[in-house]
């Protein structure tokens, strides 16, 4: 079975490409570096994020899981949120981004499946606790 992957160089180029919507780039960094799945990320509300952490429903759905935001994602995340105080973190055209939109954007901009960001072996790099 072949898994879609991207190289670290491709990843860096994609994340730095300002022609790609910031919501997509932020999602890709988080998928590569944080132990939440795509559905958990897409369900995040602006109120689930602080300057350093993200909180999302854990596997049990009965309690929140909290993860440190990697330094590589913090600037992009702030840009994606902008001055909003509520609503979905990841939006497309003013609406919450759907799984379908995220999958389509990965193919369109990166030429790979959305799962390539998790499969590429970047590993999860937690932010150091301050």
From TrEMBL:
This is Uncharacterized protein. It comes from Streptomyces sp. Y1.
């Amino acid at each position: 079975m072949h898994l879609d992957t991207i190289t670290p160089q491709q990843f860096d180029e994609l994340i730095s490409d300002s022609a790609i919507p910031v919501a997509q780039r932020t999602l890709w960094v988080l998928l590569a570096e944080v132990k939440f799945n795509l559905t958990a990320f897409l369900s995040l509300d602006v109120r689930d994020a602080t300057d350093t952490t993200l909180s999302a429903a854990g596997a049990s759905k009965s309690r929140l899981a909290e993860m440190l935001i990697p330094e590589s994602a913090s600037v992009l995340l702030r840009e994606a949120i902008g001055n909003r105080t509520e609503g979905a973190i990841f939006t497309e055209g003013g609406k919450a981004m759907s799984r379908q939109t995220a999958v389509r954007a990965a193919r369109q901009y990166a030429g790979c499946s959305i799962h390539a960001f998790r499969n590429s072996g970047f590993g999860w790099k937690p932010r150091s606790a301050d």
